[in-house]
């Protein structure tokens, strides 16, 4: 499947692009500046080619302007900061079409308005993901995922020690994103239920950031006590 990552030049977006490109997915990095997007894609391509132990498949990764990236992708992953979410969704809305999946990874941290990154903001719709669903065109399935995965872990060599909680009102879309998440070594996925539950998952990120600041770590989240089939192992 083809995956467009809007905000793919940033830490989280480029980390996801790296991991999925390593897994052989077709990745399109989107940016307002197409040259910057192309440079980010080239950097990831060279990083993969120079890494030891990377499978010897062809790496398909490119960079282009956001609208062009969205038009040609089956899955669009939004990784911009919260303060840019609404504006970006309005910008790319003409390029989104029914049948696509929009993955919202955004956390409404207080840092977006000059506050602390260890606090989250209240969102009128309930969560950033629900705001995305309100702004997305009809027929586009919105999935909330990857909120608790550290960008540092994604760029770190080796497995990612973190579970991904996936929330959506579209079960088939959620299953597709869970399958995509499991292409990242070390990641397990858990069904988080309906999209409204994203408000809980988003808030956990602020807690993890607090752990990381105090302990200088790269904490992730593991859900324990569920049967193996719950993680789709």
Overview of the structural elements:
Helix content is 37%, strand content 16%. Strand 1 (2-6), helix 1 and strand 2 form a beta-alpha-beta unit. By secondary structure, the chain is of the alpha/beta class. The protein has an eight-stranded mixed β-sheet. The chain is globular. Helix 1 (11-22) packs across helix 2 (34-49) and helix 4 (82-92) packs parallel to helix 5 (128-135). The mean pLDDT is 91. The chain has a single domain (2-231), classed as Rossmann fold (3-Layer(aba) Sandwich).
Sequence of strands across the biggest β-sheet = 3-2-1-4-5-6-7-8
Note the quaternary state here: single chain
What would you say the CATH architecture is?
3-Layer(aba) Sandwich
Q: How far apart are the first and last residues' alpha carbons, in Å?
A: 21 Å
- Helix fraction, binned, reads 25-40%
Number of helices: 8
What's the shape?
globular
Secondary structure layout:
Blueprint: E1 2-6, H1 11-22, E2 26-31, H2 34-49, E3 61-65, H3 66-71, E4 75-78, H4 82-92, E5 101-104, H5 128-135, E6 141-144, H6 151-155, E7 163-168, H7 171-181, E8 188-191, H8 198-215
Helix pairs in contact: 1-2, 4-5
Keywords:
globular, 8-stranded mixed beta sheet, 233 residues, Rossmann fold, alpha/beta
Brief sketch in words of this structure:
The chain is an alpha/beta fold and 233 residues long. The chain has eight helices and eight strands; from the N terminus they run βαβαβαβαβαβαβαβα. Strands 3-2-1-4-5-6-7-8 form an eight-stranded mixed sheet.
């Amino acid at each position: 499947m083809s995956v467009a990552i809007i905000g793919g030049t940033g830490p989280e977006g480029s980390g996801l692009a790296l991991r999925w490109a390593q897994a052989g997915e077709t990745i399109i990095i989107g940016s307002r500046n197409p040259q910057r997007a192309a440079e980010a894609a080239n950097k990831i391509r060279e990083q993969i080619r120079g890494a030891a132990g990377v499978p010897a498949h062809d790496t398909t990764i490119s960079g282009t302007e956001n609208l062009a990236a969205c038009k040609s992708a089956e899955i669009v992953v939004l990784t911009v900061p919260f303060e840019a979410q609404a504006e970006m969704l309005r910008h790319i809305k003409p390029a989104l079409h029914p049948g696509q999946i929009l993955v919202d990874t955004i956390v409404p941290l207080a840092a977006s308005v000059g506050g602390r990154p260890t606090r989250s903001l209240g969102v009128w719709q309930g969560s950033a993901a629900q705001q995305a669903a309100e702004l997305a065109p009809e027929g586009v399935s919105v999935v909330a995922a990857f909120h608790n995965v550290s960008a540092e872990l994604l760029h770190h060599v080796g497995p990612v020690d973190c579970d991904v909680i996936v929330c959506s009102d579209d079960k088939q879309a959620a299953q597709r994103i869970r399958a995509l998440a499991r292409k990242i070594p070390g990641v397990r996925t858990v069904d988080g239920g309906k999209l409204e539950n994203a408000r809980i998952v988003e808030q956990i990120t602020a807690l993890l950031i607090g752990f990381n600041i105090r302990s200088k770590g790269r904490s992730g989240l593991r859900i324990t006590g569920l049967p193996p089939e719950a993680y789709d192992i």
